[in-house]
Specification:
eight-stranded antiparallel β-sheet; single chain; 206 residues; alpha+beta
Length: 206
């Protein structure tokens, strides 16, 4: 399978903006899920349109947040059928994205407090103050989504080589942006050996 080219220098502004978007969604997921080994409660997951928190629970409600690469949108869905979205076309500053995430969750009655600053990345401006990162290149994001889809498929194959998996498919660390198989082996070394058995996975620990 031929993957699209995606050179870091060509989409760095969009990559940094998307990374910060993912940090905000990941922090919401972190605030609404119980701790699990390997931080499996914290990642975002690949879906058919982009990245998703999957189903979350808070204050008796069920909801999901997703970044839709195809339609260039933040999408919030609730278990009772409500759907809200924020267009990302042309780029949305991180400060506005953060405010809109909380507004949409508040409208659904499920807003949560998060630590409003990035961690572990060169960008250090608190989310509510970050008006610098606002790039959105639809083509680059689409190519990234294609690579994520391929990675999810390959890393799902890795898991079949490892006994006792707890989580299917690949997950994306909202902290580092790395793509990893969800490893459930009682022996982490076995998982790493299986990863190395599949050429070109580029799997990394989150």
């Amino acid at each position: 399978m031929l993957l699209p080219e995606l050179h870091l220098a060509d989409w760095r502004p969009t990559k940094d903006t998307l990374h910060l978007y993912c940090k905000i969604l990941g922090k919401v997921r972190l605030a609404t899920t119980p701790p699990r080994n390997h931080w499996w409660n914290a990642p975002l997951y690949v879906d058919v349109h982009g990245l998703t928190t999957r189903r979350l629970h808070h204050e008796g409600a069920t909801f999901e947040l997703a970044i839709d690469f195809r339609d260039d949108a933040l999408v919030v869905r609730s278990g009772d059928g409500r759907r809200e979205s924020l267009s990302l076309v042309g780029g949305v500053p991180v400060a506005i994205f953060d405010a809109e995430v909380h507004r949409l969750l508040r409208d659904l009655g499920v807003d949560v407090e998060i630590l409003e600053e990035p961690f572990g990345v060169p960008m250090t401006t608190p989310f509510p103050e970050d008006t610098e990162h606002a790039a959105w290149d639809h083509d680059a994001v689409g190519r990234f989504g294609h690579i994520l889809d391929w990675s999810d498929t390959v890393l799902g194959g890795v898991q079949r080589l490892v006994p006792r998996q707890d989580e299917p498919g690949a997950c994306t660390s909202f902290g580092t942006g790395s793509i990893s198989p969800s490893r459930g082996s009682p022996d982490g070394r076995a998982a790493m050996r299986a990863t190395r058995a599949v050429p070109g996975t580029g799997a990394t620990r989150s």
